[in-house]
């Protein structure tokens, strides 16, 4: 009986920790999230031109976590987490925050930003597959269509890479990063933490910061402060305030109300934004295959985000 009461209490706490707005509001926030994360790709490339990779991730995630903690305290929210939920929080934080961000940093140092964005965003496909295998989420027709269009779009975007045989370390790191993100998403859905999205986002980013600080000390040592160009400073602030603090807060709020497969397929809009951002800010030039892939990827996102005919927001 006590075990059943504990399970009931956990369900009540989890429901209380979730947002109360209809799920349609969170689906509508997915395009904003795609913009924030899409333009983060060229921003990170700009920052890495002057800041070493481990120092960048350590400082960015530390500041991002501190910003979210400050917001929580100003709102009067508690940052407390149940003792038996810390393992869940740390595990998901390691997969979807620490490993994902650190791997992508080195992936961008190994090749073009647009290429890293394209390969990494096999992650929605992995998430949908893992959600089916591990969470029992069924494919509906729109998800099947989105999965097919997304896979076709990613193949089209990566076709020049496959044709030229440029299977570099950066490509492998990007692919593994996408798989880690998908697994972190599944862990968050399978083992939810009974806490508000702001609390979860704060601690998971700080988990990533702790991992990055450990890597920095082990591989780079304590960084020596030096002057930075204005563009680097602006890109760093964008990364910390918008693509880390705000975007992760949105992501955990969305994940609490939207199925894992739907949320991740919606983020397929990130690669088009990342590719165009790289073209605009870094001077990279997409090919015709890139444009075909972008159209397919946008179609994949639209097939998930547009409401089904006759359906109502939950």
Automatic annotation (TrEMBL):
Q: Gene3D superfamilies annotated for this entry?
A: 1.10.3730.20
Q: Where is the EamA domain?
A: 32-156, 169-304
Q: Name one Pfam family in it.
A: EamA
Which terms in the GO cellular component ontology are assigned?
Answer: plasma membrane
| Organism ancestry | Bacteria, Pseudomonadati, Pseudomonadota, Alphaproteobacteria, Hyphomicrobiales
Coiled-coil stretches are none
Q: Which UniProt keywords apply?
A: Cell membrane, Membrane, Transmembrane, Transmembrane helix
Question: Which top-rank group of organisms is this from?
Answer: Bacteria
Q: Which InterPro entries match?
A: AA-Vitamin_Transporters (IPR050638), EamA_dom (IPR000620), EmrE-like (IPR037185)
UniProt membrane topology term: Multi-pass membrane protein
Q: Where in the cell is it found?
A: Cell membrane
Residues crossing the lipid bilayer are 24-42, 54-74, 86-110, 116-135, 144-162, 168-188, 200-219, 231-251, 263-282, 288-308
The keyword Glycoprotein is annotated on this UniProt entry: no
Name of the protein in question: DMT family transporter
Organism expressing this protein natively: Microvirga tunisiensis
